[in-house]
Amino acid sequence: EVQLVESGGGLVEPGGSLRLSCAASGFTFSNHAMSWIRQAPGKGPEWVSGFSSIGGSTSYADSVKGRFTISRDNAKNTLYLQMNSLKSEDTAVYYCAKLLLSSIYGGMDYWGKGTLVTVSS
User: Fold this and answer.
1) Local mean pLDDT, 10-residue blocks, the chain (121 residues)
2) Of 25, 32, 52, 118, which one has the fewest beta carbons inside 10 Å?
3) What is the Cα–Cα distance from 110 to 72, expressed in whole angstroms?
4) How far is 36 from 56, CA to CA, in rounded Å?
5) Cβ distance 91 to 28 under 8 Å?
6) Opening angle at CA 68, ends 66 and 71, nearest 5
7) How large is the C-alpha radius of gyration of the chain?
8) Interior CA angle at 64 toward 70 and 13, to 5°?
9) Is the dihedral of CA 36, 39, 43, 44 positive or negative?
């Protein structure tokens, strides 16, 4: 059974940092691209970042480029999202997602339950 468990969310002041983690199990983590998606209150899901399983290529939404960094540890089956210079508009539930293939441009087939990030003073 595929499981994706996010952690690391919380309340942070504007300009602060958080590091999210996503522990994966039930599939061969190293064979699949992974992504982070977020959903702000009252809005639809927004793709944030992706990390391929081949070649180490990454991609970011323009809204987070230069502030967020995605990484993965295949030995620990864990995906990370380092978030710096946080803004109030980054407030959202953050989900990690497993992609069908090694490319970040494929479809997603599993999502975790999410972790809430609140950016507020």
Assistant:
1) 97 98 97 97 96 92 98 97 98 97 90 97 94
2) 25
3) 17
4) 15
5) no
6) 120
7) 13
8) 95
9) positive
Q: Which two tokens stand for residue 64?
A: 């987070």
Q: Please tell me the predicted confidence (pLDDT) of residue 29.
A: 96
pLDDT for the residue numbered 32: 96
Residues in the chain: 121
